[in-house]
């Protein structure tokens, strides 16, 4: 997992509430176990018309938001089934951060495990960020995980809370495997001692 670094990015406004995981990545795309390649299917049912062409009215198809790295969303983002393909698709598209008033617990946890920063802010602050995002590609939000701030294109800054351990993992690029590998020395030592103590195992 790549280290999460502070960045300035275009934010796509998605004011819908209850955006569930089936909307994020529809069930027909769940056959793969690869984390790559799902970005093209992100929000497929809203993003594409019945003939397979792009829906010009969907936010991520608009020129200003094709390179969006942030989503500013309505309440209860990521609800529904617990499919990990949802954060995989978001990450593969290039989204690094999702900001909402609330997230479904499983989706929220899966974001951290896949290098995505989910930020929870009160509605009045979301309203400000949504309005800023609606300005298009000329309005970029600054995401600073180290200092835990989101700053609008006009310089208004909001602080957010994040669990210290999860913050550490994002900043260091540590997923569950990476955390385990940090203990590689201790694991090797234990295995060597166990092998000597129980050679028949």
Topology:
Blueprint: E1 7-14, H1 21-24, H2 44-47, E2 70-73, H3 85-93, E3 97-100, H4 105-113, E4 117-120, H5 123-133, E5 140-144, E6 149-151, E7 157-159, H6 164-172, H7 176-182, H8 184-197
Parallel strand pairs: 1-2, 2-3, 3-4
Antiparallel strand pairs: 1-5, 5-6, 6-7
Pathway: Amino-acid biosynthesis; L-leucine biosynthesis; L-leucine from 3-methyl-2-oxobutanoate: step 2/4
Family: Belongs to the LeuD family. LeuD type 1 subfamily.
Protein name: 3-isopropylmalate dehydratase small subunit
Keywords:
Aconitase, domain 4; single chain; 201 residues; globular; alpha/beta
Question: What can you tell me about this protein's structure?
Answer:
- Belongs to the LeuD family. LeuD type 1 subfamily.
- The protein is an alpha/beta fold and 201 residues long.
- The chain has a single domain (7-174), classed as Aconitase, domain 4 (Alpha-Beta Barrel).
- The protein has helices spanning 21-24, 44-47, 85-93, 105-113, 123-133, 164-172, 176-182, 184-197, and strands at 7-14, 70-73, 97-100, 117-120, 140-144, 149-151, 157-159.
- It has a 7-stranded mixed sheet with strand order 4-3-2-1-5-6-7.
- A hairpin with a 5-residue loop joins strand 6 and strand 7.
- The longest helix is centred in the last third of the chain and has 14 residues, at 184-197.
- The model has no long low-confidence stretch (mean pLDDT 92).
Sum this structure up briefly:
It comes from Limimaricola litoreus. The protein is α/β, with parallel strands linked by helices.
């Amino acid at each position: 997992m790549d280290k999460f670094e502070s960045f300035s990015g275009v934010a796509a406004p998605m004011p819908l509430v209850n955006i569930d995981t089936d909307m994020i990545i529809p069930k027909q795309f769940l056959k793969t176990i690869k984390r790559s390649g799902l970005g093209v299917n992100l929000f497929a049912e809203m993003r594409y018309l019945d003939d397979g062409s792009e829906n010009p009215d969907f936010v991520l198809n608009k020129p200003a938001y094709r390179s969006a790295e942030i989503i500013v969303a309505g309440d209860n983002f990521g609800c529904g089934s617990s499919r990990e393909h949802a954060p995989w698709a978001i990450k593969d598209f290039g989204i690094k951060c999702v900001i909402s008033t609330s997230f479904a617990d499983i989706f929220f946890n899966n974001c951290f495990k896949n290098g995505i920063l989910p930020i929870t802010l009160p509605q009045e602050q979301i309203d400000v960020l949504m309005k800023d995002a609606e300005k298009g590609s000329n309005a970029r939000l600054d995401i600073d995980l180290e200092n835990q701030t989101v700053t609008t294109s006009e310089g208004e800054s909001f602080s957010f809370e994040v669990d210290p351990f999860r913050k550490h993992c994002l900043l260091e690029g540590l997923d569950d495997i990476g955390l385990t590998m940090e203990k590689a020395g201790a694991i090797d030592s234990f295995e060597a001692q166990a092998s000597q103590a129980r050679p028949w195992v």
